Amino acid sequence: MSAKILDGKAVSQRIKTELKAEVEKLKQTGIKPALAVVIVGDDPASKIYVRNKKLACEFCGIKSLEFALPAETTQKELLALIERLNNDNTISGILCQLPLPEGLDEEAVINAISPAKDVDAFHPSNVGKIMIGNFDFLPCTPAGVMELIAESGIDVSGKKCVVVGRSNIVGKPMSMLLLHKNGTVTICHSRTKDLAKECREADILVAAVGVPELIRGDCVKEGAVVIDVGMNRLENKKLVGDVAFSEAAEKAAAITPVPGGVGPMTIAMLMKNTVKAAVLNSTGKN
Ligand SMILES: NC(=O)C1=CN([C@@H]2O[C@H](COP(=O)(O)OP(=O)(O)OC[C@H]3O[C@@H](n4cnc5c(N)ncnc54)[C@H](OP(=O)(O)O)[C@@H]3O)[C@@H](O)[C@H]2O)C=CC1
Ligand SMILES: Nc1nc(=O)c2c([nH]1)NC[C@@H]1CN(c3ccc(C(=O)N[C@@H](CCC(=O)O)C(=O)O)cc3)C=[N+]21
Ligand SMILES: [Mg+2]
After folding, report:
1. Residue 105 placed within a domain
2. Looking at the domain assignment, is residue 84 inside a domain?
3. Domain tally for the chain?
4. Binning pLDDT at 50, 70 and 90, where does residue 1 land?
5. Which residues on neighbouring strands pair with residue 34, listed in sequence order?
6. Whether the CB of 17 sits within 6 Å of ligand 1
7. Which one of 20, 45, 81, 202 has the largest count of C-beta atoms within 10 Å of its C-beta?
8. What is the mean pLDDT of the chain?
9. Are residues 246 and 166 located together in one domain of the fold?
């Protein structure tokens, strides 16, 4: 079987074009979406993201502000910046790039961001709302995967979904969104006994591990949908996913490439959340 390539770049471009029109309209009513991105130190994966996010903001007409802090920044300094951004009503959304350098407390930083400006949807209040199913923001990467699946005409209902990875950022919320769409969801992780066997059961397989090409062809069922969230920069500078693409593509019915799959969808969902935050914060709903 030759797999259909799920073109996240093209789908994200359509979404951003719609958002651009929405932002133009909002500006006529005095609402100006603005995103503040805080980046501490120089994690390479975060850097790609920050660059692409800035370009997407420019395209959509969203103001973007970058706060690049040195790796030696103290917890107190970081929390003071977030407090300032929380109280600045020209800022719609705040995103603090993770992971933070050694010595900084990620949980405290996530908790400090006002839930109404939490465009990553990492704050416990937003996480709780997502679990209950009545939410303002969805986490960007899982939401991007769901939009790409829906745009591709793939129905999740009743399907066996296997998510590899259980991080708070990707794996856990991904599993919850698949469940909301009536998937039968299995979550795998580093203690899973026979990973290949679990994966081979999947109609929809999502890899969010951070291990280059961990998922080989023998982990993929004939006709499965394979979603590769992984973004791994190899020593030769090549970017590869968590899935061995060509092996998996031989068996899959549909598969996302890296780059050009989930990454661009994540950015589009961040833009969507920022526009939503601008609207919510202007109507005093929060
Ligand atoms: N495209 C995008 O938009 C984004 C991409 N990413 C990428 O997605 C990947 C995952 O990110 P993130 O969730 O933050 O990663 P984490 O490191 O936080 O979590 C990785 C998860 O994978 C599990 N795991 C690790 N090794 C194995 C293994 N050998 N077998 C089975 N499970 C394993 C871990 O299990 P355990 O819990 O037991 O330790 C953990 O649950 C990375 O490549 C990251 O760069 C991340 C965010 C956005
Ligand atoms: N608070 C926080 N929120 C995040 O969502 C977050 C984060 N921290 N830290 C880092 C990870 C990683 N991440 C990426 C998203 C998109 C691309 C992306 O645009 N990828 C493109 C381009 C890749 C390239 O060309 O190098 C693609 O896959 O096609 C990359 C990486 C978000 N993350
Ligand atoms: Mg992580």
Report:
1. yes
2. yes
3. 2
4. low
5. 63
6. no
7. 202
8. 96
9. yes
pLDDT per residue over 118-145, tens digit each? 999 999 999 999 999 999 999 999 999 9
Q: Which ligand is nearest to the CA of 167?
A: 1
CB of 191 within 6 A of ligand 1: the answer is yes
The answer for residues whose C-beta is within 8 angstroms of residue 82's C-beta and 6 or more apart is 38, 94, 96, 109, 112, 113
Cα gap 210→169, rounded to integer Å: 12
How far is it, in rounded angstroms, from Cα 83 to Cα 89? 12
**Closest approach atom of ligand 2 to CA 122:** 1
Q: Probe ligand 2: pick from 48, 94, 228, max atoms within 8 Å of CB?
A: 48
Q: Look at the pTM and tell me if it is higher than 0.90.
A: yes
* Whether complex ipTM tops 0.90: yes
3-class DSSP assignment, residue 270: helix
The reply to whether 203 belongs to the active site is no
Residues 227 and 154 in one domain: yes
- Note whether 195 and 88 are same-domain residues: no
Q: Is 76 an active-site residue?
A: no
What confidence tens digit (pLDDT) does each residue in 150-176 have? 999 999 999 999 999 999 999 999 999
Q: Which residues of 95-114 are buried (b: 16+ CB within 10 A; e: fewer)?
A: bbbbebeeebeeeebbebbb
Q: What is the tens place of the pLDDT at every residue in 25-75?
A: 999 999 999 999 999 998 877 887 899 999 999 999 999 999 999 999 999
What is the CA(29)–ligand 3 centre distance, in A? 39
85 alpha carbon – ligand 2 mean position (Å): 22
Boundaries of domain holding 71: 30-116
CATH of the domain at 177: 3.40.50.720
**CA 240 – CA 213 distance, rounded (Å):** 7
Q: Is there an atom of ligand 2 within 6 Å of 142 CB?
A: no
Same domain, 170 and 257: yes
Residue 240 domain flag = yes
Domain shared by 248 and 144, yes or no: yes
